[in-house]
Write a structure and sequence with these properties.
single chain, 236 residues, alpha/beta, seven-stranded mixed β-sheet, 8 helices, disordered N terminus, binds S-adenosylmethionine
Amino acid sequence: MNLRKNNRGLLAVAGGFDEPRPTRPDAKEEEEEERGMMSEVESPNFWEQRYQEGTTRWDIGQPAPAFVKFLNSPAAPVDGRVAVLGCGRGYEALLFASRGFEVVGFDFAPSAIAAATCLARDAGISAQFLERDIFDLVDEFAGYFDFVVEHTCFCTLFPEKRPNYVRLVNLILRPGGELIGLFFTHSRAGGPPFGVTAGEIERYFAGNFDILSLAPAADSVPARQGEEHFALFRRK
Ligand SMILES: C[S@@+](CC[C@H](N)C(=O)[O-])C[C@H]1O[C@@H](n2cnc3c(N)ncnc32)[C@H](O)[C@@H]1O
């Protein structure tokens, strides 16, 4: 995989993970660069810096409308334990908590956790926010949650890490628990956010989950219109 800085100042990946990788004279150098950049993006410091600099362009300042619509629909669950992975400033966590769910938001950037905790306190909403690497949650929360909420966390992970994410969601949900996800299904090269197709998402999850629904989201914010899929997957 060929990694380079893109013009948004974030990391870019040229070449999809399904494409053949040509042998190049400088392949070793590129591999080393890739490893360095992967460890940078996977470190809390990379994200913490964005919160501290105020360059959180993914932040829409509210829960994504698809979650509000889902919770207002007859299909919505009414209670249960919810984990929000990579919760950022906690908008989805606060939405679910305000509807009576018992919510824990997880993020490894301290500033995100501090901001979410403040927002909850100011709104008088009871939700817990914990500074954790999501890949360390299994020992602490195996089988604990009824629901996992996904919003722009999966797309920050290098494609190689997606199977680990699926395993994580599987293990922190109780059997029969559900993933409620809004996936960023854009097709641009580079990332984060890394693009993914609905078909790929289905293939990642189908082994451990029943795909209850996976459909284009009709109510995305303008910048993401036509590039999101809303998902409901049940742990087998
Ligand atoms: C693109 S932001 C999205 C934040 C939030 N979901 C939102 O939509 O505003 C991705 C978030 O995931 C967090 N994150 C990325 N990898 C993580 C990991 N391994 N463990 C915990 N948090 C992680 C980052 O710190 C960041 O807050």
